[in-house]
Design a protein that fits this description.
The protein is of the alpha+beta class and 162 residues long. 32% of the residues lie in helices and 28% in strands. It has a single domain, classed as Aminopeptidase. The chain has a seven-stranded mixed β-sheet, with helices on both faces. The longest helix has 17 residues.
């Protein structure tokens, strides 16, 4: 079941993000390293307060999460007009659910819940082949490559089912 996260969920969401950050680090990637150097619970609480964070829950266990947020300093570095838009960040799915379409369900849910009057944007490491081919399946169009990251914007008229 997908639902809106509450502050009570912050620790569980932070644990998922930390587990993924550690796994990426062990694979030799520096993606999400910053999450290992900050108070993740507080970061997730801020996300929940400032935007919309959704969780996938099964048997009262949070197994995945996605955040739809207003622009922050990260987005300012990647977008010339970052004040326009809503930004998808911190998509994480437990290893237990990999390959079961939960990420797709979360993405589709966020796209349905997002404000239609604002662009929906996201980014990924430029050399992440999986994500660079995954996001366009939802209607995201490549915009630019900056600082080692590719940026994408959702185009409703070009979207199709993943």
């Amino acid at each position: 079941m997908i639902r809106l996260a509450t502050k009570r969920d912050a620790k569980n969401i932070a644990n998922l993000i930390e587990q993924r950050a550690v796994a990426l680090n062990e694979q030799g990637s520096d993606q999400w390293t910053e999450y290992l150097e900050q108070d993740l619970v507080e970061r997730v609480r801020t996300d929940i307060t400032e935007g919309s964070v959704y969780v996938f829950e099964d048997d009262q266990q949070i197994l995945a999460s996605i955040a739809l947020l207003p622009p922050d300093a990260w987005d300012d570095n990647l977008w010339d007009d970052s004040e326009r838009g809503q930004y998808i960040h911190r998509i994480v799915v437990s290893e237990k659910l990999k390959g079961r379409g939960v990420g797709q369900q979360l993405m589709e849910h966020v796209l349905e819940e997002a404000d239609e009057d604002e662009p929906i944007r996201l980014d990924c490491v430029a050399n992440n082949e999986f994500l660079n081919s995954y996001y366009p399946r939802f209607g995201f169009v490549f915009v630019d490559s900056r600082n080692g990251y590719n940026t994408f914007e959702y185009r409703l008229d070009e979207s199709m089912s993943a």
